[in-house]
Amino acid sequence: MNQTKPLKSLTLSFPSLSFWVLPSIFFRFLHLHFRRSVLVRKMDVRRRLITTVRTPAGEHLKTQKLNHNHHDSPRDSFLPLYLTNAVFFGLFFSVSYFLLHRWRNKIRTSTPLHVVTVSETAAILSLLSSFLYLLKFFGIAFIHTIGTRNKLHNNDEIETIESFTEQSTLPLPKKIVIEDEDIVNSVVSGSIPSYSLESRLMDCRKAAAIRREAVQRLTGRSLEGLALEGFNYESILGQCCEMPIGFVQIPVGVAGPLLLDGKEYTVPMATTEGCLVASTNRGCKAIQACGGASSVLLRDGMTRAPVVRFATATRAAHLKFYLEDPLNFDTIALTFNKSSRFARLQSIQPTIAGKNLYIRFRCSTGDAMGMNMVSKGVQNVLDFLHIDFPDMDVIGISGNFCSDKKAAAVNWVEGRGKSVVCEAIIKEEVVKKVLKTTVEALVELNMLKNLTGSAIAGSLGGFNAHASNIVSAIYIATGQDPAQNVESSHCITMMEAVNNGKDLHISVTMPSIEVGTVGGGTQLASQSACLNLLGVKGANKESPGTNSRLLATIVAGSVLAGELSLMSAIAAGQLVNSHMKYNRSSKDASKIVS
């Protein structure tokens, strides 16, 4: 008897456990598919395939109506769908419990498990049938699909009907089904929020198409020129763009090779400005003819500056002194660094304004641009500071002392992201033959335009000819944040005659290049390909941060080439002629078919 007690305990607990585990698993599936199944049940009332055809003006669109056989319609089933599901769910769980109960009794009486009665055989068959039905209902509906397709091909009855063009003069996408039309109408009426289409349909491309059609009907304007097909909408879900209706096509050109630090790079540039790629390419040619350019990374650290408030300026000053005390830095850094294995706190710069305190944190971020990373670290520190400063009121995680996506002196002086200086010496003969100007003319123009002219304009970080052109083109091509072009284009271009006035020394100093090779738009297919072209795709596993730092130097080197070429064109009086040749189209855009 002592030997059978553990077995008895097992047989008593296992069926009971299974009785609760199995239902929980299936109800979990039911929860995951609830929204989709509800939508499917609504749309299964009727299914007709509509094919829109372009017709001359004034004619109605013609459609094809697919009449299913009587036995194919879900509404003609013996039982409604929800009752059928309830029957099979009940059957599955009841026979499962019955079989587990009989199994327990057989173990108690030492009866072989393979010996089954008629009732047990019926229960096993019922279990298998209900299991197959539930499996089919939750996505594996190949039997129903094959049968439906055969009947659609063999029993279609075609008739001509009036189109729904009375509701909208805009054509629907080809092969849009009636349930899609119902969803479009629901979005237009507001009963289905546009932002919820992806979660409701579980199909990002279909959601974009329906949203696009709804926008056309609501605005009464066509989106025919906006591309829809050929894009992976799943790749942007929850990270790059919300409520997509298509994608904009921007041509990508290449400049180079750019000889930088002894290596050649073919630089991708996404732009719609004529002459930009050609001009940068000419600058690369001049640099390569003179042995290439060299670059130095001066600083690498992303910043975030929250603003906190106290009841008095004295209390704000107490926190300022606490943060500036070197003895406290290690403790704060330990708290900050817990946010990521790449984030490493470098410095803290607190600045007080009355009873408000602005705290500028700087940290390394590996190969990521790092805004999210540094923000998480800052949040950890703020939570930690609340222990010793419970009266601290956090007004905002960003107080604009960072400063992100705005021209700011703090970025110009202190830097943000990657700070890079890049230089090259251009030989006199190259200046004359390739750039079509002289060293003296370039030095004078740079002094009067980039330095004096920018000072008169009160420019902040804009002591250059067109650094933002090159930065923006490379940023768009490689999946960077285009808005960060504002501070990333901070640049001062210097030119000086060297070697007894024969050759030209040119340099660009850029204190705030904000780039990354992981995260955000860098993982999209096109942008990832451009990063791969430069050899900086993804994270550098051996030395984290190497790829993003290399990308920053390539940006600076490309800006150097662009500055050299544009300044030469202005000095030689070729700017207007070049733009008239390369930045003007003689084609009639209205006759171009996309």
Q: How would you describe this protein?
A:
By secondary structure, the chain is α+β, with helices and mostly antiparallel strands. The longest helix has 29 residues, at 4-32. The N and C termini lie far apart (85 Å). α6 (178-189) packs across α8, α11 (326-337) packs across α12 (371-388) and α16 (467-478) runs antiparallel to α19. It has helices at residues 4-32, 34-43, 81-108, 118-137, 142-154, 178-189, 197-201, 204-219, 276-289, 313-324, 326-337, 371-388, 409-414, 428-433, 439-456, 467-478, 485-488, 525-534, 546-571, 575-582, and strands at residues 49-50, 176-177, 252-260, 263-270, 294-304, 307-309, 344-353, 356-364, 393-396, 417-426, 462-463, 491-498, 503-513. The model is unreliable at 1-22, 38-77 and 140-175 (pLDDT under 50). Strands 5, 6, 7, 8, 9, 10, 11, 12 and 13 form a nine-stranded mixed β-sheet that branches. A two-stranded antiparallel sheet has the order 1-2. Strands 3-4 form a two-stranded antiparallel ribbon. It contains 20 helices and 13 strands. A hairpin with a 4-residue loop joins β12 and β13 (503-513). Its EC number is 1.1.1.34.
* Count of extended strands: 13
What is the top-level CATH class of the domain at 252-300 and 418-582?
Alpha Beta
Share of helix, binned: 40-55%
By secondary-structure content and strand pairing, the structural class works out as alpha+beta
| Residue runs with pLDDT of under 50 for 5 or more positions | 1-22, 38-77, 140-175
Keywords: Endoplasmic reticulum, Glycoprotein, Isoprene biosynthesis, Membrane, NADP, Oxidoreductase, Transmembrane, Transmembrane helix
Membrane topology: Multi-pass membrane protein
Transmembrane segments: 12-34, 79-100, 121-143
Pathway: Metabolic intermediate biosynthesis; (R)-mevalonate biosynthesis; (R)-mevalonate from acetyl-CoA: step 3/3
